[in-house]
Design a protein that fits this description.
The protein has 196 residues and is of the alpha/beta class. The chain is built from 8 helices and 4 strands. Strands 1-2-3-4 form a 4-stranded parallel beta sheet. Helix 7 (136-153) runs parallel beside helix 8 (188-195).
Length: 196
């Protein structure tokens, strides 16, 4: 024989199961009521529905792969050059600039209705050898010249720039990275943004 107290527990459990089951059924009904077409048919279309963009990085060698380039064109509306706009690629020797690889990516992106994110004007890595051998005011002036010239070349074609890349140390310290650019003075980041 079951006491009234035990009956209450069973009834309470049944009620709880019914409530949970009801919520689950309602969640399924809401999920099924939203048609699959509500989300964009491509990543870029889905992003655009909420005023966002969806981007990818492209390297120059992708232009030899129609499959990869087709996916990039169909799915993405923001393009970033992988390495073709970095310091060693755009200024391989001091004050001699080479934009051909970066231009190829930028031109393809713009011709296909994409925005371009410029990457990167100032960075402790992928500096050309001549710049790695500089320090102090000489390095600061070279960096500022580089930032200014590259930004001028792409003026009006770049939606957003990574002006300074990875200025902070890896890990959780929150400290600035000890780099040759940091050693030119604590205001080097601000100076790079002003030059851009």
């Amino acid at each position: 024989m079951t006491t009234p107290r035990h009956r209450h527990r069973r009834t309470g459990s049944r009620r709880m199961a019914a409530v949970v089951g009801g919520f689950a059924a309602a969640a399924i009904a809401v999920t099924l009521a939203v048609p699959a077409q509500a989300a964009g048919s491509t990543l870029q279309a889905a992003a655009a529905e909420t005023g966002r963009y969806f981007g990818t990085a492209i390297a120059g060698h992708y232009f030899n792969n129609s499959g990869t380039l087709g996916i990039a064109n169909r799915e993405f509306n923001m393009i970033t050059a992988e390495n073709e706009m970095k310091m060693d690629a755009t200024e391989p020797s001091q004050n001699n600039f080479n934009y051909s690889s970066g231009d190829q990516i930028v031109n393809w992106a713009l011709q296909n209705g994409k925005r371009v994110r410029g990457h990167a004007l100032a960075w402790h890595s992928q500096q050309p050898g001549w710049m790695q051998n500089q320090s102090g005011t000489t390095l600061r002036n070279s960096m500022l010249n580089h930032v200014t010239k590259v930004a001028e070349h792409y003026k009006g074609k770049i939606y957003a720039w990574d002006v300074v890349n990875e200025a902070f140390a890896d890990g959780s310290s929150g400290a600035r990275r000890d780099s040759n650019l940091q050693r030119t003075g604590n205001d080097w980041i601000e100076a790079a943004f002003r030059a851009a």
